[in-house]
Amino acid sequence: MRKPAVRIESDSMGTIEVPAERLWGAQTQRSLEHFAIGSDRMPTAVELAARYRAVRALTERLREPLSAEDCQAQSMPDASPAKWHLAHTTWFFETFVLEPGRRGYQPFHSAFRVLFNSYYQGVGEQHPRPQRGLLTRPSLDEVLAYRAHVDAYVLDWLAGDDAPVGALASVVEIGLHHEQQHQELLLTDAKHLLSGNPLAPAYAALPPAPPAAGRAFGWRMVDGGVREVGATTDGFAFDNERPRHAALLEPFALSTRLTTNAEYAEFIADGGYRRPELWLSDGWSTILTRGWQAPLYWDDRDGQWCEFTLGGRRPLDPLAPVSHVSLYEADAFATWAGARLPTELEWEAVATGRPVRGNLLDSGHLHPIAAAANGTDVAQLYGDVWEWTRSAYAPYPGFRPLAGALGEYNGKFMSSQVVLRGGSCATPADHVRASYRNFFPPDARWQFSGIRLAKDA
Ligand SMILES: [Fe+2]
Question: DSSP alpha helices (H): ranges in 79-125?
Answer without folding.
Answer: 82-93, 99-101, 112-115
